[in-house]
């Protein structure tokens, strides 16, 4: 999605047999920073500004569909999971327990069944306190080449480890004219060793992600930076802000 662990339209996250949909069952304790209960809808404005001076503005809608039962093939471990769906055509199954909130499977509209994650992919890890950290996986969603094909770097480097940490609690953040209080601020940092251009050669391209999770609303703002300063391989900045929820 997080969030960008769950932004399939930009690859932010590029995130079923016998699934049992149970609808609006109450979500587990501890999920107030990332609501899982059914029949919730979030609409985000997504602004992408690239280093080639192009700019895109889109909307992304995420929905919670309630709790389902996954078999052990679909989730590595049989049991209940909470389903989310993106309007870009990707579904995610998540669980919440004393360790935090994590994804266990995902499926695109082109796949027949949920594809299990090799290991839990945390959105938030407990305790929800400053200093809590974890390692997650993402992909370089904004990096492109001007000449080679495919242009998207993520097709060559599909997995990028990121070190996430809760850097502040009880944060106030203003999004789309609304003020949210008592939020968690999460930062993720990583680097991709990449051939940038014939002059600079190989170097580490930093990847930075910031996320704000607020009680009752979940993810309200996400910022992503993948910058190279090159015209041969270039990246950009992404801003995702909550504009409507119900």
List its traits.
246 residues; mainly beta; twelve-stranded antiparallel β-sheet; two-stranded antiparallel sheet; 1 helix; 2% helix; 57% strand; disordered N terminus
Q: Mean pLDDT, nearest integer?
A: 86
Number of strands: 14
Largest sheet: 12 strands, antiparallel
Q: Strand pairing plus helix content: what structural class?
A: mainly beta
Radius of gyration: 18 Å
- State the distance separating the first and last CA atoms: 19 Å
Q: What best-fitting shape do the alpha-carbon axes yield?
A: globular
Oligomer: single chain
Enumerate the strands of the largest sheet in spatial order, edge to edge or round the barrel: 6-5-4-3-2-1-14-12-11-10-9-7
Explained architecture:
With 246 residues, this protein is mainly β. 2% of the residues lie in helices and 57% in strands. It has 1 helix and 14 strands. The chain has a 12-stranded antiparallel sheet. It has a two-stranded antiparallel ribbon with strand order 8-13. 41% of the residues are buried.
Please sum up the structure shown.
It is built from 1 helix and 14 strands. The chain has 246 residues and is an all-beta fold.
Q: Layout of SSEs?
A:
Layout: E1 41-50, E2 55-70, H1 72-75, E3 79-86, E4 90-97, E5 100-108, E6 115-125, E7 133-138, E8 144-145, E9 160-175, E10 178-197, E11 201-214, E12 218-226, E13 233-234, E14 236-245
């Amino acid at each position: 999605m997080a969030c960008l662990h769950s932004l399939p339209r930009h690859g932010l996250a590029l995130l079923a047999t016998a699934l049992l949909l149970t609808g609006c069952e109450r979500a587990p304790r501890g999920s107030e920073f990332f609501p899982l209960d059914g029949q919730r809808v979030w609409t985000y404005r997504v602004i992408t500004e690239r280093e080639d001076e192009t700019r895109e503005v889109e909307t992304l809608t995420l929905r919670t569909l309630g709790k389902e039962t996954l078999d052990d093939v679909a989730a590595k471990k049989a049991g209940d999971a909470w389903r989310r769906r993106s309007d870009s055509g990707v579904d995610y199954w998540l669980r919440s327990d004393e360790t935090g909130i994590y994804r266990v499977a995902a499926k695109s509209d082109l796949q027949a069944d949920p594809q299990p994650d090799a290991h839990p992919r945390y959105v938030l890890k407990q305790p929800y306190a400053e200093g809590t950290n974890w390692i997650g996986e993402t992909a370089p969603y904004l990096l492109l080449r001007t000449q080679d094909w495919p242009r998207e770097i993520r097709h060559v480097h599909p997995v990028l480890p990121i070190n996430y940490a809760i850097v502040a609690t009880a944060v106030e953040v203003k999004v789309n004219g609304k003020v949210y209080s008592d939020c968690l601020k999460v930062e993720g940092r990583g680097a991709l060793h990449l051939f940038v251009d014939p002059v600079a050669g190989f170097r580490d391209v930093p990847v930075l992600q910031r996320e704000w999770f607020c009680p009752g609303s979940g993810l309200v703002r996400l910022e992503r930076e993948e910058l190279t300063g090159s015209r041969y391989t270039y990246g950009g900045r992404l801003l995702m802000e909550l504009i409507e929820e119900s």
